[in-house]
Every structure is written in C-alpha cells, then in structure tokens.
Specification:
Strand content of chain A: under 5%
Radius of gyration of chain A: 38 Å
Number of strands of chain B: 20
Order of helices and strands of chain A: HHHHHHE
Strand content of chain B: 35-45%
Structural class of chain B: alpha+beta
Order of helices and strands of chain B: HEEEHEEEEEEEEEHEEEEEHEEEH
Distance between the termini of chain A: 90 Å
Largest interface: A-B, 23 and 60 residues
Number of helices of chain B: 5
Largest sheet of chain B: 6 strands, antiparallel, barrel
Strand order of the largest sheet of chain B: 1-2-3-6-5-4
Oligomer: heterodimer
Shape of chain A: flat
Distance between the termini of chain B: 133 Å
Number of strands of chain A: 1
CATH topology of one domain in chain B: Pdz3 Domain
Structural class of chain A: mainly alpha
Number of helices of chain A: 6
Chain lengths: 158, 366
C-alpha cells in the first residue's frame, strides 16, 4: 500500500467508476445467487447434511424438555444390555487353511517317491470353502473356448 | 315333412358357398402347416438320434495349467480310451482327468501339437468311440451337430450348417483349411466333436468367432494326420521342403503357384526344382493357386518321399523329394537372413575427399 499515494488511489477509483458489469448482470443476480447457494449446499459431505437435518429434527422435538431422569436411566440400561450381549456371545472358531505335508497326498498314500507330478505340490489342503463366510462354493474352472487359433502359418512356403 | 324346392336349392347353394370359400381354404392351410411341421420334426428326430448315439463317447476334460483349473470337451476315437481334443484344452496343462460314465478317470497327454492345434489324451479304460468321417467331401450348407460341455452344464447338442472352408482369418493363414460352421458354441466346448448327419466326426471345435454365433473347427483329417505321425514315429513330424511360393503373373497348366525361392540347406535346394517353376502337384494334392500349398504342406510328414510336379517352360517335370522336419518360424527366418544378409550402408570409396577451405565457402544470401 505504501507504493500508492492518495492521488494514485484516487486515479484508480476514477477509472473503476467507468467499469460496467456485463449486460443482464443485475437481472440474473438473484437467480445466480440462489444457484450458487444450492451448489454450496450440495457440495457438503453427506454426513454433514444428515447431521444438520438430524439437528433440525431434534430441535423441532424440543429434546431438552423431554429429557428427564427416567428416560436417561432407560437409555443407559438399554445400552448396557446391548453391550453385554455382544461381549458374552460365543465366537466361532476361525476356519484356517492347513498346509499339506511336503509330499503330495497321493504319493504318501502309495508309500512311494516319484519326481513326477510336480503340479500337485502347489496345492494346500484346506478346509472346504463352504465353511467360510462366502456365497461361492469354489473358484470355477476356466471353461476353454478361445477366440483365435493357437498358431498361424507364417507365409506360403512348404 | 317336405320343404319347398326353392328353399332346398338355396340351402344347397349356401352349403357350396361355405364349402368353397371357407372350408377348402381352411383345410388347405391346415394341411400345409402340417406338411411344414413334418420336415422340422424329422430334423429334430435326426439330431436326437445322433445325440443319443454319440453323447456317451463325448467327455468333459478337466486339467490345470499355471493360471487356473480348466475345463473343456473331448471325445473317444477308439475303444482303448484315446481322446481327441484341442491344444487349448490339453496342450499346456497337467493333471488331466475325464468325466466318463459318471466317473472321473485320470488321463495322460500323448500329443500336444501347437501347429495343428490338436492334443490327444489317453484314459486307461474301454470306451465307446465315434466313427471318423471326412470333412473334405462336405459342401457349404451341409448340416452338422456339435456335442459339447458348455460351462458347468451337461452335454449339449448344437445344430448348424457348414458356412465355409477357410484358409485364412483376419489376414493370417491357418496351417490347414478350417471348417467355418454356424454352430453357436459356449466356453467349455473347445474340443467338441463336429458330426455330420451320419454321426461321423468331421471336425473338432477349435475356436469361436465374434459373439459365439459360429465357430471354426479343425478338420478331422488334421487330427488323423497327427495321430498317424504319433503311431509311426512316437511324435508329430511336420515335414517341409524349403521353397517359397508366390502368385505367378501368368498361370500355366491351370496353376498360378510359382516357386520364387529355394532356401539353402533344405531338401528343395538339391531337389532339381528351380525358382520360376510353376507348381502343379505336391503329394496327392493338386495345386492351382499359392493358397493350395497350405493343405499340401500340412499333410507332409518328415522323412516321407514326396512327389512334386512342376511346369518349367512347356515341360512337365516330377521330382521325388524327401521331406525334412518343419522348422520353427524363427529357424526359417535365420535361414533367410543367412541367405540374404542385410545391406549395411558404407562410406563411398570412389568420391575423393576435398580439404575444407574458407576461401571456397559458398556465398550466403541475406
């Protein structure tokens, strides 16, 4: 502000005097104001809107007058009952996958050792997935039908 | 009780009118509708017969590759449990098993040939077998039935028509002519047998076209060639001669397949065939255009002596060439690189060097 003296400021203000808003500005002012207000309201997070509405609702009920000792005691008792039910409920044992022995189960049963069938070593013996809290019994296999041939002829040679 | 004669006549006329204008057209329409129903029910009965007769020989194949478990279709081709399917089903996986007669039997891989797209499995069991037919004699519009296992559903028949015999698709050549059939197929039906109306296998469902409305099937002759190689040599031996072809400018003796190049160190190099010869026949297959070599080449086995007939000038010549093992694409490219080394730019030696001098600098224009 030190850079401007009074004369300078006066000159700028005189210049400002000739600035005009675009045509239709004042006609649309109220409409634009309401639109922006609505936008601001909608831009709020959902929880804040819900909280505001809940507050309005509670205020309309006049909670302060309703709050009395019996009501408070009932609420406390209800909360205590709910919490105690949660605490003393028996938790089911978790279903955890167990690792298979290092050798494939098939070979162990036969009592022999073989270098064959390395794929079987990839699997772990786990409890059936139906015990888990999921709707799917098992991962479905890949049903094969490609959309292109597995190889092409590179050119017309024989 | 007698009626007046005029009234009787009027009634007769009415009856005739009703008979002529209503009853006869009604009967005609009813009969024609019945006549239309008859062929439809005949086709349905025929498909049902094929399905009932063949479905026991069609099996569901399970396996696992490095990605996941997989499921496809296959079918028995002999009573000892030999199963034809596609490479995509049983080519790269392991731990194969087949569902047959309500049991799950282990199966082992005998052949997995990526060039043809065919895989052969073996289950140690006695089995029904589908009779082998011929796809070569079929015509476009010939009806065909596929029996496959879509998704996790039971064996399902699908009726369609042969839509064409194609050698290339989307600009790429197949290794042999494929049957394009208007049979709607679903995932899980790769490897399903394609049957003619006699219940003979003419193809193997290989891959689907867009939106599964039709599919390509490998001709059964290709699978038989692979099996024959396996029985003869214990492995698949695709043969090759080592010659390149192109469309000739001028056809000769009904062929426009011109030999353009003979690759070094291949059977073709020492066969007596020359570049510029017009190819007329390879083995038992006549050649009329360069595309015809697709099938002629596929059915050559390495080690076989192949008679090759060419036209040189006005002379018809036949050479017997022993086919070598078909190289991979990379091997062929290596041979071609050796034959045609890349031209590398080098500094010219003819131009004399001139010393730089400020005096000879060109004048600049502003």
């Amino acid at each position: 502000m030190d850079e401007f003296d009074n004369n300078e400021i006066g000159r700028l203000l005189r210049l400002k005097k000739y600035e005009q808003p675009p045509p239709g500005y004042f006609e649309n002012f109220l409409h634009e104001f309401h639109r922006r207000q609505r936008d601001e309201l909608l831009r709020q997070p959902l929880w804040r809107i819900a909280l505001g509405r809940a507050q309005d609702f509670m205020m309309s009920l006049n909670v302060a007058r309703m709050a009395s000792y019996p009501v408070a005691a009932t609420a406390v008792l209800l909360c205590a009952a709910v919490i105690s039910l949660k605490i003393y409920q028996t938790t089911p044992a978790p279903n955890v996958a167990r690792l298979s022995p290092a050798v494939p189960a098939q070979q162990a049963a036969e009592g022999g050792w073989s270098l064959a069938a390395p794929v079987s070593t990839r699997f772990t013996v786990s409890q059936p997935r139906t015990h888990l809290s999921t709707h799917r019994a098992a991962t479905p296999p890949r049903y094969v039908l490609d959309s292109m041939p597995v190889s092409y002829e590179s050119s017309l040679r024989f | 009780m007698s009626r007046p004669c005029g009234s009787n006549d009027r009634l007769g006329a009415m009856e005739k009118l009703v008979l002529r204008w209503f009853l006869i057209p009604f009967l005609a329409v009813a009969l024609s509708a019945r006549a239309e129903d008859q062929p439809a029910s005949a086709v349905s009965r025929e498909v049902k017969d094929i399905f009932d007769h063949c479905k026991r020989a069609v099996v569901k194949i399970h396996g696992a590759d490095e990605h996941s478990e997989l499921s496809g279709t296959g079918f028995f081709v002999d009573p000892t449990g030999t199963i034809y399917t596609t490479y995509s089903v049983a080519g790269e996986g392991a731990n194969f098993s087949v569902e047959f007669d309500g049991k799950k039997l282990p199966a082992r891989q005998l052949v997995a040939d990526i060039r043809s797209g065919i895989a052969i499995l073996k289950a140690d069991t006695t089995s029904p077998a589908l009779p082998i037919g011929k796809s070569e004699g079929m015509e476009v519009t010939a009806p065909v039935v596929a029996i496959g296992y879509p998704l996790d559903l039971p064996e399902t028949p699908s009726l369609g028509l042969v839509g064409g015999f194609d050698r290339k698709y989307l600009g790429y050549y197949f290794h042999t002519t494929h049957l394009r059939v208007n049979v709607a197929t679903q995932r899980g039906e790769a490897g399903a047998p394609l049957l003619n109306m006699k219940g003979e296998v003419v193809g193997i469902v290989a891959f689907t076209l867009e939106n599964n409305s039709s599919c390509y099937a490998l001709p059964i002759e290709a699978a038989e060639k692979i099996r024959s190689d396996f029985l003869r040599f214990g492995e698949v031996r695709h043969g090759w001669i080592g010659a390149n072809l192109m469309q000739a400018l001028e056809p000769k003796a009904g062929s426009s397949a011109e030999v353009t190049e003979l690759l070094d160190n291949t059977p073709a190099a020492n066969s007596g065939i020359h570049a510029g010869d017009i190819l007329l026949q390879v083995g038992r297959r006549e050649i009329h255009q360069p595309d015809d070599i697709i099938d002629a080449s596929f059915f050559i086995s390495a080690g076989d002596n192949v008679p090759i007939t060419v036209m040189r000038g006005n002379e018809r010549l036949t050479f017997s060439v022993q086919a070598d093992v078909h190289p991979t694409t990379e091997q062929v490219q290596r041979i071609q690189r050796l034959q045609h080394p890349l031209m590398i730019a080098q500094p010219s030696t003819t131009q004399t060097t001139q010393p730089l001098s400020l005096e000879k600098a060109p004048e600049r224009t502003p």
